[in-house]
């Protein structure tokens, strides 16, 4: 599904990623861990095409397509979704209008007619239940006045509506209490299929428990320096990163 | 001298009016008699010179919402006089500029007596090589104690060649008043734009949604739901570059039935 080769990227002229190689196959969940400033969020923003980040070398292939050649919106249509670490507030654009625009843009990309209003509202209702998001959020501005936890629930709710095939969860667990994390994680798990895959960025063991990843990678100074299975994640929780980064 | 259109709203009357301002010169004088109420929704679909004087007697209430949607030159001079105790004026406007539009609005609200309220909310979205100027002045006379006044001017520039001028001013001769004013000028929020694109909303559509949201609180000042829907649709058509004169025209032609029925909706005239 996703193949990252020798990826180098910079922000404001400063090199952050210095040769990332990573392959994620259909149905797999990969966890990315690493010290602060190692480039985890940069990698996720590069994957979704944030124009602030400049790719200086390397390639990303997604389902056979050159992902770097696609505009952010086309990457979304191709099935790439990011749950933002700090979801943006968009006052005045209601959640309903926002999601209608997003969903219909995707349908247009695939030559489909816009979803009829009743069907669209039924879809929102059904997906809201997955993450326990109340109906009144739909008429509010996107993330406007949402608490930290509500914003993260809202990210997974959007994921449920847009049905991506590859999701990046950038510290979705931060700012969530134990109950909210369980709801969000269960919501995520219910959306998994043999065709969907995910890259999960986290610092915490409890996220490993919920995500049940197939692989764990450690990113340090812009490169993946260690790969393993879930036991690597638990070892990091216990021993920190120094024993890996110092190698 | 130009002809002056004079309107007298009788004491206690309640009116909702939609007005389309065409090109040329307008000189209008409206008086709201004691306890009357006027909701006035104006669309400037063509450039022109407008001079408007509105007097409010005691307890009268005015809500003005104006949309400037043309691509020409316009100049509005609006003078509102709060002449009776308890009069309230809410003045609101949205300017959507593109091409070489040059829209200048000079607003003067005079608190002549005590206990009156005024509120100005003006927003501009300026693209192309357009220019928008909003100059607002609240003048509180010496006897106009307990005056309440707000001025909020916000401008969004969507092109490097667009120009916004905002000048909120206060001139106060009374000492027991509460008057606030503020002005902001900015560009589209890039983080919001990227967030929307990540969800698959194409950049032009995302820009449109953000611009529409920016003027949304001006449209919210339209109390009547059907008028609000109509004005909201006009704003959207303007942003999409789909607005034609027929969208706002109230002249008798092929769209007569539609426009006339709209014009007469929701009136509660005594």
Outline the structure in words.
The complex is a heterodimer of chains A (247) and B (270). Chain A is an alpha/beta fold and 247 residues long. Chain A has 9 helices and 12 strands. A 6-stranded mixed beta sheet of chain A has the order 6-9-10-3-11-12, sandwiched between helices. A 4-stranded antiparallel beta sheet of chain A has the order 2-1-4-5. Chain A has a two-stranded antiparallel sheet with strand order 7-8. In chain A, strand 1 and strand 2 (14-24) form a beta hairpin. The relative contact order of chain A is 0.18. Chain B is an alpha/beta fold. Chain B has a domain at 5-188. Classes of the chains: A alpha/beta (247), B alpha/beta (270). At the A-B interface, helix 2, strand 7, helix 3 and strand 8 of A face helix 1 and helix 2 of B.
Could you list some keywords that capture this structure?
heterodimer; A: 247 residues; alpha/beta; Rossmann fold; 6-stranded mixed beta sheet; 4-stranded antiparallel beta sheet; 9 helices; 39% helix; globular; B: 270 residues; 7-stranded parallel beta sheet; 5 helices; 14 strands; 18% helix; disordered C terminus
């Amino acid at each position: 599904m996703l193949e990252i080769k020798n990826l180098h990227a910079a922000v404001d002229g400063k090199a952050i990623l210095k040769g990332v190689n990573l392959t994620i196959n259909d149905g797999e969940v990969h966890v990315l861990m690493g010290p602060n400033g190692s480039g985890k969020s940069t990698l996720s923003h590069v994957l979704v095409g944030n124009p602030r980040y400049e790719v200086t070398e390397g390639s990303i292939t997604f389902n056979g397509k050159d992902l770097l050649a696609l505009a952010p919106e086309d990457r979304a249509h191709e099935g790439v979704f990011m749950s933002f670490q700090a979801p943006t507030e968009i006052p005045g654009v209601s959640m309903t209008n926002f999601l209608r625009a997003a969903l219909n843009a995707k349908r247009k990309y695939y030559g489909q007619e816009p979803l009829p209003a009743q069907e669209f509202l039924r879809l929102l209702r059904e997906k809201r239940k997955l993450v326990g998001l109340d109906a009144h959020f739909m008429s509010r501005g996107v993330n406007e006045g949402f608490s930290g936890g509500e914003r993260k629930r809202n990210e997974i709710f959007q994921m449920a509506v847009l049905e991506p095939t590859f999701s990046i969860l950038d510290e979705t667990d931060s700012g969530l209490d134990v109950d909210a994390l369980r709801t969000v994680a269960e919501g995520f798990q219910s959306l998994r299929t043999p065709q969907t895959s995910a890259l999960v960025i986290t610092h915490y063991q409890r996220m490993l428990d919920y995500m049940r990843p197939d692989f764990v990678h450690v990113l340090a100074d812009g490169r993946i320096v260690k790969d393993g299975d879930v036991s690597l994640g638990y070892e990091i929780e216990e021993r920190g990163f120094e024993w890996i980064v110092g190698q | 001298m130009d002809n002056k259109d004079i309107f007298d709203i009788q004491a206690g009357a309640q009116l909702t009016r939609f007005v389309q301002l065409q090109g040329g010169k307008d000189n209008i004088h409206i008086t709201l008699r004691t306890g009357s109420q006027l909701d006035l929704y104006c669309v400037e679909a063509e450039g022109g010179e407008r001079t408007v004087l509105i007097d409010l007697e005691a307890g009268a209430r005015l809500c003005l919402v104006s949309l400037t949607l043309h691509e020409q030159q316009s100049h509005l001079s609006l003078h509102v006089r709060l002449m009776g105790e308890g009069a309230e004026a809410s003045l609101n406007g949205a300017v959507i500029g593109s091409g070489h539009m040059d829209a200048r609005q000079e607003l003067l609200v005079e608190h002549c007596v005590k206990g009156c309220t005024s509120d100005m909310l003006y927003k501009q979205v300026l693209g192309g090589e357009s220019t928008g100027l909003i100059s607002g002045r609240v003048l509180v006379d010496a006897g106009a104690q307990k005056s309440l006044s707000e001025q909020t001017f916000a401008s969004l520039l969507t092109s490097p060649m667009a120009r916004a001028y905002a000048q909120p001013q206060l001139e106060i001769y009374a000492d027991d008043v509460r008057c606030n004013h503020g002005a902001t000028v900015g560009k589209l929020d890039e983080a919001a734009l990227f967030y929307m694109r990540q969800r698959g909303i194409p950049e032009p559509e995302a820009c449109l949604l953000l611009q529409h949201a920016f003027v949304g609180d001006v449209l919210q000042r339209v109390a009547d739901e059907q008028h609000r829907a109509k004005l909201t649709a006009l704003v959207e058509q303007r942003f999409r570059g789909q607005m034609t004169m027929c969208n706002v025209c109230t002249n008798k032609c092929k769209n007569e039935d539609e426009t006339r029925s709209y014009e007469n909706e929701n009136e509660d005239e005594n």
